[in-house]
Structure formats: C-alpha cells, structure tokens
Specification:
Strand order of the largest sheet: 1-2-3-4-6-5-7-8
Structural class: alpha/beta
Helix content: 25-40%
Largest sheet: 8 strands, mixed
Length: 204
C-alpha cells in the first residue's frame, strides 16, 4: 500500500474481465474513514486526451440487487458498456451509499418513501441533507491513474461543479439517461425538480 495523497492510499491493481471488456481494477483506501474505493480503467487513459468517465456512487440495491426504485444500476452498466465501446475510459466507484447516508439509513428513507415522501423529503426527515456526497478523493485517484481531463457521463450538473471545485477539468458533460421504469417515476421527477438533474423527461 502506498500513500498517494494525505488521506488516500493506493492498494494495488488487477485484471477484471466483464461481459463488456477486460478492465483494470484499482483499489484505494481513504485513511480517514477506512472506506475502500475502486476505479475501473480501460485503454490508454494517461496520454493527455480527455477520458470518457463515470463517477458512480455505490448503490447496493440498484447495482447488485437489481432495484427498480432508482436508475443507478442501469447507469453503471451503460457507463461500462460505453467505455468498452470506446476502448478507453475510467469509472470511479465511490463507497457513499444513499447519497452519503449509508445503507441502513437508506432503508429507513425507503420506508418513508413507501409512506409518501420523496427522496429529498425522506432524507430531511431523517436529519440529513438531500445529498451528502463528496468528490475530493477523485482528484488523487485520477492523478494516480494519469488522467488530466474528463468527458463525464452524468445528468447532474452539480456533480460537474463539485468535480470542478476540487480541481478536476471536465471538458464535456455526456448525458446518461437510462433505467427509466414504472417504479421510479417520482424518483426521477424529484431528481429533476429538486436536485437539478438534466433529464429530457421523466420517461427518458
């Protein structure tokens, strides 16, 4: 393990074959929280050219349990598929479940949503901000990987601003509108109306 920033250590890398491509998987540890984060890379991403990228926050329910309440799992799969098609890119997977509130509190928030609250109202009722995520670790992760600029796959302009604020150059926002289901219409509507996501429609 080697320290690459005051708060972040690099653990190691390995091959990760997937249905889309054989990626390289890179492991990092946040020394302040002991949380483990990873990056998946493909191709030559350290040649100075902007890199197709996704900064994806952990969503166990969507990414691993196939939940239709959100669009997270669909966005993760589509981002990896696009990177594989391009032959070059990076996906950073950050361990900040439920927009930073954690898995158990996310279940509590889902329970409130079952009773009629939207995602923002549920977080607020539990005493949390609407979005607690942080992106400061992305800069040393990308620096370690040799990435200098991103073509960022996101519908969230606040994420672009947050990455820019920590010193990451985002040269383009690439829309990632997938995963619309009959179960997540209010979720998508809330993201558009209250969180500023740029969705062409709730049925996008």
């Amino acid at each position: 393990m080697s320290e690459i920033a005051p708060q972040l250590s690099y653990v190691g890398s390995c091959e990760l074959p997937t249905q889309w491509a054989k990626f390289q998987l890179h492991g990092f540890v946040d020394e302040r929280t002991d949380k483990e984060h990873v990056a998946l890379t493909l191709g030559d991403i350290a040649n100075g050219e902007p890199v197709l990228a996704r900064v994806h926050s952990e969503c166990l329910t969507g990414d691993a349990l196939f939940s239709q309440r959100c669009d997270c799992g669909a966005q993760l799969e589509e981002a990896l598929r696009r990177i594989a098609k391009a032959g070059r890119g990076v996906l950073m997977y950050l361990r900040q479940e439920g927009r930073g509130i954690g898995l158990i509190n996310k279940i509590r928030a889902y329970q409130l949503q079952d009773g009629g609250a939207d995602t923002v109202e549920a977080n607020t009722a539990l005493g949390f901000p609407a979005d607690m995520r942080s992106y400061e670790l992305c800069k040393p992760m990308l620096a370690h990987l040799g990435v200098t600029a991103l073509r960022l796959m996101t519908n969230n302009p606040r994420k672009v601003a947050a990455l820019t604020d920590v010193g990451i150059e985002v040269v383009e926002r690439v829309p990632l509108e997938v995963g619309n289901t009959c179960w997540n219409q209010r979720y998508l509507s809330t993201k558009r109306r209250k969180l500023g996501h740029l969705l062409t429609s709730e049925r996008a």
